[in-house]
Amino acid sequence: MTVTTDPAVVAAELPTGRGPRRRLPALQPKLIAGLVICGGIALFGLVGPWFVGNPNTVDNVGLRGPGGGFLLGTTQSGQDVFAQLAHATRGSLIIGLTVGFLAVALAAFFGVIGAYAGGLVDEGFSLFSNIMLVIPGLPLVIIISSYVQDKSIWLIAIVLALTSWAGGARVMRAVTLSLRNRDYVLASRVAGERTWRILLVEILPNLVPLLASLFVFAIIGAILGEAGLAFIGLGASGSWTWGTMLFWAGNGLALRLGALWWFVPPGLMIALFGAGLAMINFAIDEIIDPKLRNQTRAVKKRWLASRDAKAQQKALEEAR
Amino acid sequence: MHLTTTRRRPRRTLALATALAGTVLALSACSGGGAAGGGGGNTGDGITVFNGATGNIAENWNPFTPTALQPTLGIIHEPLFYYNLASSDAPEPLLGTEFSWNEDGSQLTVTIREGVEWSDGEPFTTEDVAYNFNLRRETPEFNTSGQTPAAEAISDTQVVLTFDSPASYTQEANTLGNTPMIPQHVWEAKSDPVTDINADPVGTGPYTVGSINAQTYELEANPTYWGGEPKIPTVRYISLANADAASSALLAGEVDWMSSFFPGFEDLIASEPDLAWVNTPALTTSLFTCSNAALGCEGPQTDPAVRQAIYYAVDRDQLNNLAFEKVAELPSPTLLIPGRDDQWVSGEVEATAPSGADVAQATQILEAAGYAKGGDGIYAKGGQRVSLNVQVVSGYSDYIAAIDAMTQQLAAAGIELTSSQVAYNEWSANQQNGTFQLSMDSIGLGASTDPYFTYQPRYATESTVPVGESAGALNNARYSNPVVDAAVAAAGSTDDDAVKAEQYAIIQKEIARDMPYIPLVISSTLTEFNTSRATGWPTEDDLYAFPATWKAWDNGIVLKNLKPAN
Amino acid sequence: MRFYLQKIGFYVAALWAALTLNFVLPRLMPGDPVDIMLSKLSARGPVAPETRRSIELMLGVDSDESIFSQYASYLGNVFRGDLGVSVTYFPQTVTDTIAATLPWTIALMGIATIIAFVLGIVLGMLAGWKRGSWLDNLIPVTTMFQSVPYFWLALVLLYIFASVFRIFPTNGGYDVYGTSPGLNWPFISSALYYGTLPALTIVLSSVAGWMLGMRNMMVSTLSEDYILTAEAKGLTPRRIRTMYAARNAVLPSLAGFAITLGFIVAGSIVTEQVFSYPGIGQTLLSAVQNNDYALMQGIFLVITLSVLGANLLVDLLYSVIDPRTRARA
Fold this sequence. Notes:
Number of domains of chain C: 2
Radius of gyration of chain A: 25 Å
CATH class of the largest domain in chain C: Mainly Alpha
Number of strands of chain C: 0
Number of helices of chain C: 14
Shape of chain C: globular
CATH superfamily of the largest domain in chain C: MetI-like
Helix content of chain C: over 70%
Oligomer: heterotrimer
Order of helices and strands of chain A: HHHHHHHHHHH
Radius of gyration of chain C: 24 Å
Distance between the termini of chain C: 13 Å
Helix content of chain A: over 70%
């Protein structure tokens, strides 16, 4: 996991919640690329399954490359790889989004509310999230997965969310702790605003970029985690996700048999989606920490260049 | 702020780092690369075997424990006789040369081979044989059959085994073919035979243990073996994580003998001239059904008409093409193996299951039993749709591909099939407790090819319990038929093949009609070998032993028969 | 003082919670180790009804103790170092099983993680120092490597470098023919050779994370006042880059690194599946598949202790290496 921000730095650099202009991410090439990729894949996952055939239908043609009516060829039992890919995209995105929302919700709940409330509640929540953090996630996932029958996508999503929210909660808590001592928050408290209003109006807007970054991380972490689980045979094996497609392709020795049309697309989709999300994450990082922005550097350069030009001019004039 | 940096500095640091990494790599590649390009190389006359072991190898040569390393049974220790499960021949003498039953089938007299020595030089005597059986009988942890006989050495060459009840003929294969012989002088001295790992095992077998660690072990030929020292000097066993690793090791020439099923094997093996394979189908892949409503089973599969309809609606050719790599064979409704077991198959049932789907027959059976097709194309009777759930171990991709195909095949006949892929623990727990409707599994190997070992455990009422209790690995279908029970009892209490065949015919008529286990295909047991290292492997024309590397007892027979290729 | 007591108290509580969870969860799994063993035996040979009883007796799993007394004796045994006997590898003790496989996992994953960390930090430092250089363009590429599922990347690299171009071996931890484990050079060099490809895949797929984090922190740190002061004082850029900027920027990454080290064991399962590497991940999978309670508990204990240990180390040391956090608390 990337430790992108030291809470101290983050707390120092967050925009102070006034003015919508500063909150929207500036449209730069990285962000546009990221949104286009993720949007495209999401569209494919949403709409694709309605237009493609049945991914489970077997066909006597067996393992064949693209052609003959199959856009991406067929699997070992003659199933349509393209149809599987469409359904798998939908499945993986469902898992990713579910885990993203759950993880962010849990992190926000245990991190923000605990830190703001202070006292025993804070200690308790902090202890709980730290315990969840140190409990090894993968063995827990393995056991929970093998305990419940019929591993559906939802089960995998819930299990992944349960094991991945704790890190985010820790970060949220650190940030909230520093925020709650800001002047404007203290002012609101003194003015008698109700707690939930303070949380919603003063504190939460500052946390939005951080939550967004957490959300993006959780999604890609969930998709990769599900793929890893599927590979060792503990995934949502009855449903189609990128991970289960890779599992079948691996079991069918697709790579060794040269059936690259079966083995490559799911992995490539995960990589593309992850890259797209990472680029969106870069943009969010730059909101959180303006020093990372290219515009900042460009402005600075211009400023320095113009300063240089002025100094040169001055020197020339004095030389005359 | 301007930070003027010369361009060279960052590059220097980077260059240094890359150089360091490169040196480490080169160093290790140089020293390790001395072996045959790309991997470990076996440069001697020995062979390498992969018998399905994954992960950690824990030293355990104790033949009484279920977790003993596999060469313990057959290669290090031998039984009295060898029962070849690939053919229907009489048992081959190993440590025993002759045996005979007494009048009422309660005593078995065995003549042992003379001149046999244990690998530590002590002679193998009838005292050892007697000690074996008595130890087993008196130690509950070892008494796996529950009916181990009491043994007495009546002379230097003969031992009498006395069973608890008369007509114990069915115990013959287990006693003579499935009991390893251990030395008395070694085991008497062990303080706790149950948990002893029997390091440096002493046996009569063709090989002894050379070296062992957590990743591999090596066996060495036994120079004083009674059948002559084996020609292959060393046999090394390794562990690999999955079928992919096994196939790549085979193709790279790193494994000489293994029994793995992997997709596309025919083309892959054909690409390497040194490799060969043999197929010995012996396990009938079937749909196990929880068939007996009286014992607590629920669902449409409790109706024999539904089970018969499934039997006819399945397209076995398509299953063979798409799921079983075209090396499966047609099963028999008697659940025996056509060819090998022809002498036991009654002429009254059809010889093999139909190869294509017979949808007309299936629908006719259902309609004759009172089912009517609903609006959704699925048959129903009394408000209950014929919708069945089949459970399968997730990761068994051949079974799952078969289920995918069957879902379509059965839908054409008006039966709905849904599937649950579950972990092995759950699958086996469900099957043993009867909490399933259909389950993909295969009928396993018995102690010998006598059909008694297929019928008694799977079809007899004494082998089953109501749903909710564990039936062990036996009659999971909860089948209970007094006609079959009587026939099984009769066949088990005689030594006369003609009488047995008669009784089996009765059983076969019943089970072909009731079908608590719906046979799908006889799935392949593939074994692959590397003929450039050793020759003398079993072939389809000469199946002198069951060639699978994991098969106890047969593995010793195969290893004895091998010769170096050059 | 109170700070340290509080920290240690928390970790004791976390340890107890983890131990209890380790005890409870395996027992919630469906199936029974004896039944599973029976089921596996029946696929290979004949199994009689009485076999179940004899296996039960042998494995010693038919205890009539209540679950509470089992729990109490489990806790007692853990503190005495007795982790029980494995069912999968009967009669090998759990301690022996772990001792046979854990060193391989720690060696491979530990070394690979350290290499990835060092490489990532160095690259990140250089990328953050020199904005807009070619290193900055490296970031999207490495990020893509990190987004690829690890096992996919590993399978592809294994196929290319071991089957197509036979540069690296296809499986194993060392050359089982020529060498045997011990403190001798042939074994060590063989182990290095066999571990190169797995380590390479781990490094490739995780270096992006460290690099990105370090780069962002470098950029933040470089705008601090003390950097400007150092520049003004006339220190060489190289000295500023390493002694001032990087030292401060690496702190959060160090914390993350310690925590990652704690999760090595859990993360090694996939690597070992792909490369048939003889580590503890495969043992864990076998234990889960066989309902081997004792072995599962033992391995979880190892994982829990390493994770907790790493976290404790970070918590205690962070206040030592970064005095600013002390002031804040």
